[in-house]
Design goal:
Helix content: 25-40%
Radius of gyration: 22 Å
Number of strands: 9
Shape: elongated
Distance between the termini: 31 Å
Structural class: alpha/beta
Largest sheet: 5 strands, parallel
Bound molecules: S-adenosylmethionine
Strand content: 15-25%
């Protein structure tokens, strides 16, 4: 899987991708992360990438030309999807994340300031994606959320000590609670059922905990689970 990120702040992407599981996935060739800076594609000698909005109003708007030219320079495979990170997009979730693993290449457009000149959308026709109903200063953190969550679903990204089998959302529920050593901490005991080695009882306990948690914390998810499973 190859990620190409169009960003005015490539260091944000490169820095975050050089650590831990994502850093290792790059080292082992499971993914590659490439950045393209639209500022390198401006025709203006001051390398201007934004300007004031027509019609007035606060803030600066990202100009179409540097973004479209930068996008057109990215070499594309036959199995590429282009995402635009925007609070106006489709909410990102585990299903969208799973769908994205089917592509060989994901191109991600990161905005900044007031956002994109509308003609960037008209010309590139990206899939617009939001990571939640709040507004960040730029698309780099949202892009990293996509890169990180998609990458960890790819074969070979997670090592033996990490696993996503029982992760929240994988079976439509939130994950069950975890415990590790010691058996007692500040008077709080690990539930007895986890200590007795009876795997079918442990599985039953964990599923019940998943259901309890999801009902309490995410009744919306629980309703969907009830209807689908
Ligand atoms: C300050 S925001 C612009 C918000 C825009 N004025 C609006 O209200 O829709 C700058 C950039 O951050 C990114 N961004 C901010 N919040 C986001 C979110 N919730 N999901 C995805 N991208 C987001 C987008 O790339 C956006 O172009």
């Amino acid at each position: 899987m190859r990620f190409d990120v169009l960003t005015l702040f490539p260091e944000m992407i490169e820095g975050a991708c050089s650590h831990s599981i994502i850093g290792r996935a790059i080292e082992t060739g499971v993914i590659s992360v490439n950045t393209v800076n639209p500022r390198d594609y401006t025709l203006d000698k001051h390398k201007k990438v934004d300007d004031t909005p027509y019609g007035g109003g606060a803030g600066m708007v990202l100009m179409a030309q540097p973004y479209v030219d930068a996008y057109e320079e990215v070499s594309k495979s036959d199995n590429t999807i282009t995402l635009m990170m925007t609070p106006q997009g489709k909410p990102f979730d585990n299903n969208m994340c799973r769908d994205l693993t089917k592509y060989d290449q994901i191109i991600i457009l990161c905005g900044h300031y007031e956002g994109f000149d509308e003609r960037i959308r008209d010309i590139i026709k990206p899939v617009e994606v939001s990571i939640g109903d709040f507004v960040l200063t730029g698309g780099e953190l949202p892009a990293l959320c996509v890169i990180d969550s998609v990458s960890r679903k790819l074969d070979g990204a997670l090592g033996k000590i990490e696993s996503m089998e029982c992760d929240s959302f994988e079976n439509g529920l939130l994950e069950y609670p975890h415990y590790t050593k010691p058996r007692e901490y500040r008077g709080l005991e690990v539930p007895e059922v986890l200590l007795n080695g009876n795997h079918s009882l442990i599985e039953e306990y964990r599923l019940n905990q998943q259901i309890k948690r999801t009902k309490e914390r995410r009744p919306d998810l629980y309703e969907k689970y009830k209807n689908n499973f």
